[in-house]
Amino acid sequence: MKFIDLFSGLGGFHVGLSKHGHQCVFSCELDESLRELYKINHDIVPHDDIRTVKEDEIPEHDILCAGFPCQPFSLAGKKKGAKCPDSGKLIDHVLRIVQYHQPKYIFLENVPNVITIEDGAFWDYLKNSFESLNYRLEYKIISPTDIGIPQNRKRVFIVGKRNDLVKAFEWPKLKNAKKNDFQKLLNDNFEHKKLEPQKVQLLEKWQELLDVLNLEEITGVSIVAPEFGADYPLDFSNLTLEEIKKYKGAYGKELKNCKNWDEVLSFMPSYTKKNFRVASWITKSIIYSRGLYKENTKACEEWKIGFHFTNNSWQILEWRGLRNNPNIFNHLVQFRASGIRILKSNIAPSLIAMTPTQIPVIPSQNRYVSTQEAAKLQYLHKLKALPNDRKAAFKALGNAVNAKIVELISYNLV
Ligand SMILES: C[S@@+](CC[C@H](N)C(=O)[O-])C[C@H]1O[C@@H](n2cnc3c(N)ncnc32)[C@H](O)[C@@H]1O
């Protein structure tokens, strides 16, 4: 069949559909460098802005693919949805192309949030708009982990079938996919970036703590270092200056000599400063960390003497790893705004486009995941070219649709 690839990026749809011999007849992509790569990888020069594409310039096609920009729908993108004038409304350009060409199938991908955003209003809009154009939409949330690729990345795949097609569309069966370990996909011969020495020291310092605590199991969500020695009330918004002075702030700093609230706040942990109380997302971890401190006061006091890192997010160790294996170096690490996140080593976290700061780290090798390894997680490793710049490559891969999921779904587009 013939297909078109709208918002084509690196061409995840292209790679997946080509596996069945389908032929791409048109694509469009706003980003110039991605257009150049598309030419190298897929031998098609994409049109630029979808808003300037005339329907009759697009060749006839059977499948319309569109990974419309997800930023307005992702949790991080402030949930603006279709109200977002720049991106949310881009789907209307897909609708006008569908109205003109009436392809057999529509194939969309986005973050799962598109289904629930604004109480389902955007999804209703999508479904009803396509229905009025004679299509029935179905969706399924699929992660690469469901098909044996070790990346946690839930995305919604939406397939629309033209109403006159007789054969029912079926989603691929995903159960019993062979599990592949991310560690087996690593190859330190690929070009990679070393972890900065300061971050190596940071991880070693945190491991020193885990070693002295000698925990059989990490039962809390996060270990929050500023709570070692602190005893301020979790909500101090109603206290007077005299009352708060009886307590100890971050790392057990005495507040008794503070002359005003500005001074008090300078001794308090960052997560209390906005509302004069502990933010709810971290409350349980604070209680857990104070408990650890109480039971291991001497060890925690000794450890904190050598902990000189001032970056707020480096003072929190978010444990999403194996509970009974408190060794950072047996895990993956992500430096996030909320803390240093420790993840199980067998599955990579979702590649994301919004920020290059969260590229996963392999601490046992003191390095970041390489672009080639990331490309494997998206099943785009056979592309001839990726962006040369590492950050741009991760951004493009984080934007892309997983080509293997596309391939599996499109078995049933017949
Ligand atoms: C979620 S990504 C889709 C990625 C693609 N499916 C892939 O496999 O790489 C959305 C893409 O839409 C592009 N885009 C944003 N606004 C656009 C517009 N007005 N016209 C065409 N492309 C646009 C972005 O540059 C981005 O590459």
Q: State the separation between the terminal residues, measured CA to CA.
A: 9 Å
Strand order of the largest sheet: 2-1-3-4-6-5
The appropriate CATH architecture of the largest domain is 3-Layer(aba) Sandwich
Give the topology string: H per helix, E per strand: EHEHEHEHEEHHEHHHHEEEEEHHH
Number of strands: 12
Classify the helix fraction into a percent range. 25-40%
| CATH class categorisation of the largest domain | Alpha Beta
The domain tally reads: 2
Shape: elongated
SS-based structural class? alpha/beta
- The radius of gyration over CA amounts to 25 Å
Description:
The chain is α/β, with parallel strands linked by helices and 414 residues long. The protein has 2 domains: 2-177 and 389-410, Rossmann fold (3-Layer(aba) Sandwich), CATH 3.40.50.150; 197-369, no CATH class. It has 13 helices and 12 strands. The strands form 3 sheets. The chain has a 6-stranded mixed beta sheet, with helices on both faces. A 4-stranded mixed beta sheet has the order 7-8-10-9. 41% of the residues are buried. It binds S-adenosylmethionine. S-adenosylmethionine binds next to helix 1. S-adenosylmethionine (SAM) is lined by residues 7-13, 28-31, 34, 49-51, 67, 69-70, 90, 399-401.
